[in-house]
Amino acid sequence: MSRSLARRGLLAVLLVVLVGCTDSSPSDDDAAEPASPTTPLPASPTVSGPTSSVLPDTAPLPDTAPLPDTAPLPDFRVDLDAVLADSSDPFLNVRVDPDPSAPIVAKLPPIYAGIQSLGPSEVRGDGQRWISVALLDPVPLIDRETAETGHAPDGPIAKGWLNDRFIEPISQGLAVGLDEVPACAADGDRAPAGGPGLQPLPTDLVVHSHRSALVAPGCIRTVLGFGRSRQAPFEPFANDLTPVAEVPTYSPDAFRSTFGLGDTNEVWPGATETADGYVARQYSGALALVLGFRVESWTVTRLPERGLLVIDSRPEPGGRFRVDGDIVLTSVVGADADSGAGGTVMVAGLARPFEAVINARIVDADGEPVQAIWSGGFAGTVKAAMYGVDATDWATAWGRFTLEAVVDAPGDYTLVLTDDGAGADESTHELELAFTVDVEGDDVPTLASPGHLATALAVRAFGISGEGFALLPLADEVDLGLGREVIAVAPRDDLGPLDAWVLGVEDFAGYVGPFDLLAATRGPVRITAGEIDHCAGPPLRLPSRLAGFRQVNIEPIGIDSCLQWSALSLFIDAQDRIVAAYLDRWEP
Predict the structure, then answer these.
(1) Secondary structure of residue 52 in the 3-state scheme
(2) Same domain, yes or no, for 55 and 201?
(3) What is d(CA 143, CA 361) in angstroms, rounded to the nearest whole number?
(4) Rounded to 10 degrees, what is the CA torsion of 61, 67, 73, 78?
(5) Which pLDDT tens digit goes with each residue over 288-315?
(6) Residue 171 domain-assigned?
(7) Are residues 502 and 414 in the same domain?
(8) 262 with 226: CB under 8 angstroms?
(9) Contact 247, 227 (CB under 8 A)
(10) What pLDDT, in 10s, does the model give residues 417-456?
(11) Last residue of a domain, one of 318, 336, 357
């Protein structure tokens, strides 16, 4: 039997996830091409988001940050006005030694903000003070051999000396201080997301820098900087990876914890995470900022003239996500007797496991392994004692994962998630989640046969990548339908391109077309056999032309409502060929 959101009545519980100087007089040595326009752009719009629904608390979130044992070394950004005053060379030179004639390590654009003092300083005879600095954000190096390089906790760094006349301090490493943008300034303003002036940008945009800090009681600020790289997005000091005076579109999710970043699809290794958030790969392939807590309200300020996106957020009390090593749980949907959920537990989160694989198992109160029906991983829906679920990334960004397990006997259980140490310490982490099944599961998925499961997985792989068409066991002609109405009959050889699976119908089930039949295959899915519920309703009646064929279904897991639900049903003949494919949607 299939599963419906209404029958499961799942109880959602969110847990805590987790620069040298321009010389005082211009010289040929310091001449360079400008990195970006210096003409000021119009004032940046500030957009704020609505308050999300309040969910049960977990660990408390402090309103004040603990005081460190020692004062941190100061952070700086380039003094834009001071550097631009030298029109012959609008860059700030980082040098090997505290001397205006020393070799140049790097030339910092005037919007660069990733400068950290290393402590030592030196005052020259002319009264100019030089400080030893580390460059925390990527920037082209003039000569790698002359740059003393090392590794910081958050990524590679380059080192050199700067004349402090051309830099200005910034608070807590944030490129945007409270004097420019007040903390959570528009809290209470409920302007819609995606406000005026938010335009899409080319796909070669890179998340260039990522900082966060508690800037006021109950207000956490995250500042993202953007750069561009066409050749080497993973190289921290690639010659073409520099800040840009552009920022992408953004779009928050239903819980205001995830902000999509338009078509941005690359991130510099030193910018993947902070203590308050993660840059993660979406199922679409683009990147998003996932904050490490449930958000009560947020404010977004765009500073396009400096390539910065500022997100101020007010966390819900006790709203931090649960973190263990390289696994962050952002959502847990548990079995609950009163809700009629039976023995279903579903988890979603972020991870950076080795080769993007998280191993999952369930043990009973005695620590003995339990057979469960699993969904969400690369193996499809299977019954097993251990299961692998794949994350959307691991090498360049955090990856998303979603996992569903069904246990059909009452008892106390523990779900154990294990990663094999893709993090900096390369250690193995286990995250344990205890749950109880109080009632027998009466809504257990009907497993597809191994052959039909393989067929569904082949269709899913083709739907994601557009490759592997020759592996699809299609009949000579295939019915393509919506609901239970056939829309087109396509010859097998015409179905090789992905757009051949898109039906150009104006409207269906309250939605505006066209409709992509393979859209349901992209993301974590459950694969079942036989009839399935029409989300919260009973199964649709099959047309007579489908009678006698075996039905195999691909539907998403980890969704929040029927409005996100869709299902692709494949109908297979006695020769194991796909004779029909129908898309089902829930009516809004």
Answers:
(1) coil
(2) yes
(3) 51
(4) 40
(5) 899 998 888 888 887 777 778 888 888 8
(6) no
(7) no
(8) no
(9) no
(10) 998 654 445 567 788 888 888 766 556 889 999 999 999 9
(11) 318
